[in-house]
Amino acid sequence: MTKSITIGVLALQGAFQEHIQLLRRATVVVGPDNDSTWEFKEVRAAGELSQCDALIIPGGESTTMSLVAARSNLLEPLREFVKIHRKPTWGTCAGLILLAESANRTKKGGQDLIGGLDIRVNRNHFGRQVESFEANLDLPFLEVLDDGKLGTDNAPFKAIFIRAPVVEKILPTVTGEQVGEAAVDETVIAPSRAPVDDTAKRTIGQDIEVMARLPGRSAALPNKIASSHTEENVGDIIAVRQGNCFGTSFHPELTGDARIHVWWLEQVKKAIEGRRGMDTAC
Fold this sequence. Notes:
With about 280 residues, the protein is an alpha/beta fold.
């Protein structure tokens, strides 16, 4: 029987419409097929979030997003979605900040975090809005894609960085809060939430995987390609994954290039099929 997979995009502020447009383009590659169909919806309330199998938190202003989420009684449901039920979630730019377990350059009480990724992010690492830039990236995790239908032909990915954060530190995988981070000046941490079942525990217990780095801004400016192969182990960390929680410093949704959305939808489908298999076994 064909089952619908519902992808929510948090629509409190930021580039949520652009994400939905690229998600629809991505289905040209990933389906629908005989097993599943896709539905994409804007999420502004807890009831809408509860209908979703996976979630994107878009780029925008992370402080504004967290404030609106708190006022809309959505902040705690978001933490439940990401940390208790451990459903697939992707955050871009501001979304990466919200998914971090620790964020610096933040006054105490000035930013609520959702958490889900055992990282410390450095907010606005590249400076102000006027210092935004584009970088041509060679992203190794996209090499598995058959992107002929998208017409990209393995071209470098043009990443857009707007007041972008970077992953300043990969934190130890712990049960509970990152209490050591609470002592760092101008740093806030996410509250702890216990996973709901063994499947969620296995996902949240995985280590951080570095998916891409920016080896140097001068190396990645237009007309150059920045190699993001992580074995080089140099440069700013700009994409990470921990289980089915994924974050990028840059804005794929503003490029018109759907390849990362294709890759992520494939990861979502695998995660959902894996959970359904576990539920059937139980």
